[in-house]
Amino acid sequence: MLRLSCAAVTTKRAPLASDDASLRERLLAWFDQRKRQLPWRDTNDVYRIWISEVMLQQTRVETVLPYYQRFVERFPTVQALAAASSDEVLSNWSGLGYYRRARNLQLAAQEVVKSHAGTFPNTVKGLEALPGIGEYTARAVASIGYGVHVAVVDGNVARVVSRWKALEEPIDKASTKKTLASLATLLCDPRRPGDSNQAMMELGATVCTPSSPKCDQCPLRTECAANATERMTDFPKVESATKVRAQPMAALVVTKADQVLLMRRPNTGLFAGLWEPPMGEGELPELASRLKAAGIALKAIEPHERTIKHVLSHRVLTVTVATATAVTRVEKPVAPYEAARWFDAETMQEVGISRLAQLVLAQCSALKREQKPKARRPSSKAK
Ligand code: SF4
Predict the structure, then answer these.
(1) Is 53 a catalytic residue?
(2) Burial profile 268-293: b = 16 or more Cβ within 10 angstroms, e = fewer
(3) Which of 85, 153, 236, 312 could share a disulfide with 171, CB 3.0–4.6 Å?
(4) pLDDT of 93 strictly over 60
(5) pLDDT at residue number 224
(6) What is the biggest distance separating any 2 CA atoms in the chain, rounded to whole angstroms?
(7) Using CA positions, which residue lies closest to atom 1 of ligand 1?
């Protein structure tokens, strides 16, 4: 029997007892009526369901939509993704962040083509054996794509379940994760597991939201312990806040005529495999010296007044940016980069560029635009 430590319901009114089957039916009826029309909900194609699930992890639906459309247009099948160049895959992922996912996506596609004749395994275990597919994605793909009766627990589902049962245990504790999975299974209809899982995720995203849940629209309301005690925002409980470290960085945007020098990161670590203006931890002079030592002579180094803040899961990067002109068109990477190349606006579209690099380049372009009119203004002497 499932053992839970739920809040004692002593105030106002107790949630009504209801059997799990009727709760499941109510949840599915709500989903059938209220679900958002999303392109990955119109398909049985496991490949597309998998792409959407990977993109949706830690990213909002509204953000994912244009990326998903573009990605499946360019790579309509698992074979097309497997055969593409990694630069092209990263370029179509650029802006979504979490670039390791894009790399794993292609490795998994290659594995499906090579070892499974282009068809995704139809079990959680089989899916989990593919590169980059963890328990969450495997369960989501198995239930939505193949109708396997397994419940999925993401952040949205954890919030709904913890409120429904007023769970006092922190949801990030390993033991609570098992409890959450067991409870989510109670709400997962064996006849429509994929829809049940999507219903829970949808409920968390649109109704049972973090700060202002719309309980009057919720199909679980009459059974919800948090609602009964009006303690909705007391849940979920969280054990530990992640410590975020501040990290100063410098970036040098080196140009020559209309081209900019970008370097490619190694295939592991931060922004793996992506191209960017040379940057690194520490101050600008150190970075400029490293380029000079590699034979990249610079002139007219101009630091920008504005820094760029970029938040990662465990770090906040504060980047000081400078522009510089290269004396010669050298293509030599400095450590830790593995390649260097000159790009123009068009060729830059063909490779993967991190969101941070895009911000750095955008700041340079904006500054250039601001400076142009000043340069054209006639001097007071000329007047
Ligand atoms: S009743 Fe309110 S708190 Fe409870 S699950 Fe529904 S939206 Fe969330």
Answers:
(1) yes
(2) eeebbbbbbbbbbeeebeebbebbee
(3) 236
(4) yes
(5) 96
(6) 90
(7) 221
Residue (of 25, 37, 36, 34) closest to 220 by Cα position: 25
pLDDT band at 380 (very low <50, low <70, confident <90, very high): very low
CB atoms within 10 A of CB 209: 15
Cβ contact 81:106 at 8 Å: yes
Contact 195, 31 (CB under 8 A): yes
Q: Give the domains, in start order, of the chain with CATH numbers.
A: 20-234 (1.10.340.30), 245-373 (3.90.79.10)
User: Which is the closest atom of ligand 1 to the Cα of 214?
Assistant: 7
Predicted TM-score (pTM) of this structure: 0.74
- The C-alpha atoms of residue 299 and residue 312 are separated, in whole angstroms, by 32
Residue 321 Cβ < 6 Å to ligand 1: no
Tokens for 137, please give them. Answer: 């994605």
Distance 160 CA to ligand 1 centre (A): 6
Q: Is 215 in the pocket of ligand 1 (CB under 6 A)?
A: yes
Residue 294, pLDDT score: 87
pLDDT at residue 126 is higher than 90: yes
Residues 6+ apart with CB under 8 A from 34: 202, 206, 217
